[in-house]
Amino acid sequence: MEKKRSTFTGKVGFVLAAAGSAVGLGNIWRFPYLAAKYGGGIFLLVYILLAVTFGFSLMVAEIALGRKTRLSAIGAFSSLSRRFSFLGYLASAVPVIILPYYCVIGGWVMKYLAGFVTGSSAAMAGDAYFNTYIGGTWEPVGWFLLFMGITAVIVLLGVEKGIEKVSKFMMPVLIVLILGIAVYTICTMDGALDGVVYYLRPDFSKFSVMTVVAAMGQMFYSMSLSMGIMITFGSYMKRDIRVEKSAKQIELFDTGVAFLAGLMIIPAVFAFSGGDEAALGQGPGLMFVTLPKIFASMPAGGIIGAAFFLMVLFAALTSAISLMETIVSIFLDKLAMTRKAACLLVFGICTALGLLSCLGYSVWSGVRIIGMQILDLFDFLSNSVCMPLVAFATCLFVGYVIKPQTLIAEIEKSGPFREKRLFCVMVKYVAPVFTLLILLSSVLDVLGIVKI
Ligand code: PFF
Question: CA-to-CA distance for 307 and 301, rounded, in angstroms?
Fold first, then answer.
């Protein structure tokens, strides 16, 4: 029995929906802290090179796979080759790892929004505020549950469209705000220009294999690749919309927002710390420590801070919704259950996993697994292990099982495919070797077997 699949109306609808899922905390929270940690300009350069070659090819492949089969990840792979059914399951496991800790960070955003709204902006600019907050057992848990609860209610009621409408308006405002904050910081704060140089000038002495590992993981995460999402989006795409052009637009948009977020945060880190290694390498807390300081120094900073965190909250919500929707629809497809039961189940699983991440900063702050804090471990597992593995297997699948020509034919149904050669070379040769090397080196590195 073939169910009729609903499709996006028009080109803009597809690109905007995919971009709404892609642009989220990955761009605003994760990209800047990785860029700060892994050498600034060199990270940016590696990221862009990866995005236009590898990211582009993978995005095109995933969208085309979805559009060809009209199925989500599990169905798409198994309908083309039984032997590769496992790949659909592996890709689908990634959102289950990401969503819980995504909601933990979403909770941090809500807490900061509430702080700005209630006039605590001065306190939040204090050095120890963030660490004290995440170390305070139950409050972060409460915000995490609230963020996830809102996401679950939206998914349960199926009212995503309303949120997406609001966020279409919020997104341009967010971009203007990010730009404004960047310009303000660079023009008014001593030392910020050094940060701009650090961010924009590649320093090759800072290059290491870890730069590539981190940039690649970030690219998957940010563009929602290697987790079945783009396959699902492709399955809703009409045949007259150009896959190649859409992929380029989504990439440009996603990378553009990440680039601006880096320009907002990295110069500020320099202004406040003079580019101190410890401040640059501070990791997940970077945005939450640096931004309140900028807002505290601005006229009307409290209002701007509140507006900023509100926009970030919407960007985070649209991404969390698409993550949760993906997991719910997998359960609905595979297990005979109602939507309500599926939402409850996902909520339960994510609460358990999210609690681990949350309490990893308080009750279990001493716990280190392969040298990592719990949230970092989930992040590492999804971005540096599962996604490269999925990308590697997807390339083998496209390159050698169904053959690139199958997808090229699908893509050419809607017009010429200009980067056909790049696509073939990437999926057949470069990307598989590359992902495998990256995967091995990151795993060997954390296990302490090889130091890279
Ligand atoms: N790409 C999102 C971000 O950068 O925040 C994260 C994400 C959202 C991944 C939705 C997957 C997804 F389905």
Answer: 10
The pTM (predicted TM-score) of the whole model is 0.92
Residue 449, helix vs strand vs coil: coil
Ligand 1 pocket check for 26: Cβ under 6 Å: yes
Tell me the one-letter amino acid at 159.
Answer: V
pLDDT for 65-115, tens place per residue?
Answer: 999 999 989 999 999 999 999 999 999 999 999 999 999 999 999 999 999
Contact 395, 431 (CB under 8 A): yes
319 Cβ below 6 A of ligand 1? yes
Q: Which residue type, as a one-letter code, is found at position 195?
A: G
Query: How far apart are alpha carbons 443 and 438 in whole angstroms?
Result: 8
How many Cβ atoms from other residues are within 10 Å of residue 278's Cβ?
Answer: 7
Centre of ligand 1 to C-alpha 105, Å, is 13
Whether residue 222 has its Cβ less than 6 Å from ligand 1: yes
Cα(194) to centroid of ligand 1, in Å?
31
Three-state DSSP at 372 gives: strand
Please give the angle made by the CA atoms of 318, 323 and 324, to the nearest 5 degrees.
100
Beta bridge partners of 372: 369
| DSSP label of 142 | H
